[in-house]
Amino acid sequence: MKRLVYIFIGLITSTFVYASVSHTLDDTFFEKEFQQIIRFEMLHFNDENSLDEKSIETLDAAIVKIKELQKSSKIKVTLVGHAYKAADYYPQKMQNNLGYVNESSKNDDNRSENYVKAIEKKLIDKGIDRSSLYIYDKEGQLPAFTDEIPESGSLSNRVMLSIYVLKPEDIDSDRDGVFDRYDRCPGTPRGSKVDKNGCPIDSDHDGVLDYKDKCPDTPPKGVLVDSHGCPLDSDHDGVVDYKDKCENTPEGIRVDPFGCPLKQTLKLHFKSNSAKILKNSYGEIQKFAEFLKKNPGYKVKITGHTDSIGKAVVNMQLSLQRAKSVKKALVAEGIDASRIVTAGRGELDPIESNRTAEGRKANRRIEIKLFH
């Protein structure tokens, strides 16, 4: 009884490695690590050297699969051609199976190479990358069937097409510590902190990624920040909004750590032992009046101070009278009197020593403090 002789994949693979090589397939091919190997049914050629109908369908399916894989993976496509070569005696059959070529083989028209080239051309014509094709023709070294059946010759005329999908290389293109195949945010700037998906992190949760954040660890959560991740300072007083207890401080006003205006000194001169403001001080009065007009939301407390020369009671009265003189001058400049509060502190709050002329001069002063 006639029997079909099936060729096992292991025999085919070992033959790839040890047999002679045509074109681009060489002994190093199988040194690569493959993620997947896809083998298709044999592509059979008939007596007219054309693919049969079933083989055409198989080839079309292979082309679709190759194009699909080329979009996302690095692949190699092998085309291994076979052609029938008759052997009259068993010793010659053994020679063929062991890969030797007898004299009659040398005179053959090398149909297996033609079969391979025909498939190669079809693949290239369909847009398959030529560089991914690895070609090998085995001539008559590995027949698919015995010589004992009439159809043996035509059944051995075939091309085996296989797809080898290479394992992705562990490449980290943006050097963020996450391999490209896992990286959901490719192109991360060098040195950026990233999460397990390769995406830049926002450690302080202020909406600005760390690599752009010039103010890391912005506390507390929910604080409004600018494009650089820094807390806003809307009134530009040097105190960020979330710490500022006195919003909308006028520009140029010195403030405390909470953003509230500090006491400031008006550089005014008075007649000795008198509450009368000297003419050379009116420029300062007018300047401050203009400020109050531009900032109508503020009120002002005016406090008079003296040095320690003379009686304390007299100094207390004098300091209050001088504060009232300043108020009167501001009202004359158009400031509503209801916005001005006056007080006298006499010699109680010196800022310098009263033992020196310079110190006493500094202590004789008018202080102003803004408030809402």
From TrEMBL:
Residues 1-19 form the signal peptide. Residues 264-372 form the OmpA-like domain. One of its GO terms (cellular component) is cell outer membrane. This is OmpA family protein. One of its GO terms (molecular function) is calcium ion binding. CDD domains: OmpA_C-like. One of its GO terms (biological process) is cell adhesion. Keywords: Cell outer membrane, Membrane, Signal. Its main location: membrane. SUPFAM superfamilies: OmpA-like, TSP type-3 repeat. It is found in: Cell outer membrane.
